[in-house]
Amino acid sequence: MFRGRGGRVSEDVSTTRDELVNAAAHVFARDGYARATVDRVCDLAGVTKGALYGHFTSKAELAVAVVEQDAVELERARERLQWRHADPLQVLVDLGHLVHGGDRVAGRLVYRAPVCDEVAGELVAWWTRTARDLLLSASYRGQLHAGVDLDRAARGVVTSLVGTQLMAQATGSGAEERVAAVWRDWLPRVAPAETVRRLRLTAPRPDRR
Asked: What Pfam family is a match for this entry (predicted)?
């Protein structure tokens, strides 16, 4: 819950920074990057401009911080999914839905705000490494076709999912079904039919993420 300007301003530096990042995410989601202003972020966080500039030099830095915070949350989500699922391919499917299937503000910033280009590259690199690690685990469990090139497979599916997300953003709908379609098309290329049949390819329920 965000406090208005009339609320008590936190003196704790880390808390203030977190509040600013959370407020910025809300403003970017509501107004878009181009129309968002630092004044609106300050109003929502309940801090002065001076407090904001003590942490960030510009709106661009705020956008990067939102994307970086999202990357931290995605890593935590991966850990939760791996704890919940024994099957690394199901973790891969669910994480793909989480990264590309929802309406995450960071996902929009990554592809629409040029200031996020560098961190976007880092996020794609993290996702590609994660996909490869999960495919390696699946290979150890005998879930993949023999001879699958793990590096090529990881790059290929991440590229397909990124394209799917861009298409969903351009059309304004259908992200979850598009992601499920990627899994239906791609998984049989790397895994036997009986393995794919055991997987849920649709998006997990919100309480299972």
From this structure: TetR_N
What is the CATH code for 67-198?
1.10.357.10
Distance CA 142, CA 99 (A): 26
The answer as to CATH 1.10.10.60 being correct for domain 14-57 is yes
For residue 193, CA distances in Å to 71, 96, 99, 144 come to 32, 20, 25, 10
Q: For the chain, what are the domain ranges? A: 14-57, 67-198
Q: What burial letters (b/e) apply to 33-44, b meaning 16+ CB within 10 Å?
A: beebebebbbeb
User: pLDDT digits over 94-143, tens only?
Assistant: 999 988 876 677 777 876 677 777 778 888 899 999 999 999 999 999 99
Residues 107, 168 contacting (CB under 8 angstroms): no
Over the range 57-66, which residues count as b (16 or more CB within 10 Å of their CB) and which as e?
A: eebeebbbbb
- Residues 3, 46: contact at Cβ < 8 Å? yes
